[in-house]
């Protein structure tokens, strides 16, 4: 497949289309992600008003991630076929009536269905990924993709504005806050952006045509399915993406309950995680333009693992019967220490996401629809599972930090897979695309 990025020699002047895409696509990403995180703040208030339980709250957080995961790969493939700009605009317009519907909902099922509809906005994320990858200059692809992924800073918009709007005008006004910006960005994409020139698509699998012998159909199906290398990279990416998204949704409620904060203060403290995550995405993409993430992934993973280990410790007290009497010990993670660990972990996760997406583009940039779509799909599914795991820790195990314990175990499994991958000789020379 031939992309515009391949036609640009290093140092060649970048046309206005690339600049428009780099500026507008992150705005679209930020608005979609902000709409997803509405329930991270609004759901805490709705839980109090509508009197639904922790499991229902977790399902409300998980529903956009689940439907978004299901939509990511099909929308990425559709973007490759009809153009990323068209798919992004369609998804942005689709979200608008759902935001309006949330403002006029009054029962749990309506909020759940609206959340499922918001998940379809993931089509905009997947389409934007294909769009940016097709138009960005290849030598700076990591930086461009990192800037795009930094759209997750949209969660900060929700954390900052929604409590103020809800307090001043009532919660039904909060979802309407995003309607005008969403329509404005869709209009700007329509007026100023252009789709990449049509590229030759991979051959349609023969099993869809029905005229080839069975062995040839099987061979075509194998060519159409993602390669094991793509699946491995997508699996690694799914941890950083899924964990970041799930924590961005869960942290306001967690902080409010753990440290008895108001919702407004809890949302502001949660910015300590999302802001470094967005910055780390840009840094990780820029670093990966210069060196291979395979050398960096161990340091990033080790940093996140240390943070998760410390965050997993619940408050406890113990009494030791010493020689000269009893010794009382107690531990309680202070709010400042908790947010400092969140900031370091958010930065490391951002570097991991940015670097891995650049690696996907470098090794599989000829088919970013499959590679990026699969990565977002696996990450979305992992993100959808995590709120339920957090509730499992709260309600059934009785330890509020059990969610961090689960993330620690998931990262350990991911690192074991990376170690097995390295020892299995996967470091063989892989075809590199020209930078």
UniProtKB/TrEMBL annotation:
**Transmembrane annotation, as ranges:** 20-44, 56-79, 86-105, 111-133, 145-165, 177-193, 233-255, 267-286, 298-316, 328-351, 371-391, 397-420
State any GO CC term. Answer: membrane
Q: Which InterPro entries match?
A: MFS, MFS_trans_sf, NO3_transporter
Q: Which domain of life is it from?
A: Bacteria
Membrane topology of this protein: Multi-pass membrane protein
The record's Pfam families line, in alphabetical order, gives: MFS_1
This entry's Gene Ontology molecular function terms read: nitrate transmembrane transporter activity
Report the locations given in the UniProt record.
Membrane
UniProt key word Transmembrane helix: yes
Keywords of the record, alphabetical order, are: Membrane, Transmembrane, Transmembrane helix
Q: Does the keyword Membrane apply?
A: yes
Q: Which family does it belong to?
A: Belongs to the major facilitator superfamily. Nitrate/nitrite porter (TC 2.A.1.8) family.
Q: Which PANTHER family match?
A: HIGH-AFFINITY NITRATE TRANSPORTER 2.3 (PTHR23515)
Q: What is this protein called?
A: MFS transporter
| Taxonomic lineage | Bacteria, Pseudomonadati, Pseudomonadota, Gammaproteobacteria, Oceanospirillales
